């Protein structure tokens, strides 16, 4: 039985920078989101896009690479924050087929109330917040 959270809470976890970790990250987020957290599908989509970008466009996707996710749930404000911290600039741009990809951050920015990216020499942090209406129920 899930417990409804009434105070802000945050949790974090790191993952291997492999494609298999995308499913692991989504499963972890689904597990830690509390009952009553609206827009679960949108949160999972944002997580998928951010971690995919970390793997494809940063050193996190290189052998031995990692990335970290932080999830912050604020029930009184009806919001959830998603932060992805990767290992910084890629050694080479991702190789794509014609017409493939390139829309992930556009999707994230449309779903999120706020979006921020900070780049450092050895890391890049992307943080966004999604709001949900008080009357929406949990979707997990």
From TrEMBL:
Pfam family, one: HATPase_c_2
Residue span, Histidine kinase/HSP90-like ATPase domain: 21-126
Molecular functions per Gene Ontology: protein serine/threonine kinase activity
InterPro entries: Anti-sigma-factor_SerPK, HATPase_C_sf, HATPase_dom
Keyword Kinase: yes
Keyword entries, A-Z: Kinase, Serine/threonine-protein kinase, Transferase
Keyword Disulfide bond: no
Gene3D superfamilies named in the record: Histidine kinase-like ATPase, C-terminal domain
Protein name (record): Histidine kinase-like protein
């Amino acid at each position: 039985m899930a417990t409804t959270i009434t105070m802000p809470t945050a949790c974090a976890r790191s993952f291997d920078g492999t494609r298999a970790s995308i499913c692991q990250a989504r499963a972890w987020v689904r597990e830690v989101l509390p009952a009553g957290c609206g827009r679960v599908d949108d949160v999972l989509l944002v997580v998928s896009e951010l971690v995919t970008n970390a793997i494809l466009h940063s050193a996190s996707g290189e052998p031995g690479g990692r990335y970290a996710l932080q999830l912050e749930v604020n029930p009184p404000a009806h919001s959830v924050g998603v932060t992805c911290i990767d290992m910084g600039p890629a050694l080479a741009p991702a190789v794509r087929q014609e017409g493939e990809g390139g829309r992930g951050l556009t999707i994230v920015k449309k779903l999120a109330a706020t979006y921020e990216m900070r780049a450092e020499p050895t890391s890049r942090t992307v943080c966004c917040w999604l709001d949900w209406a008080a009357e929406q129920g949990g979707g997990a």
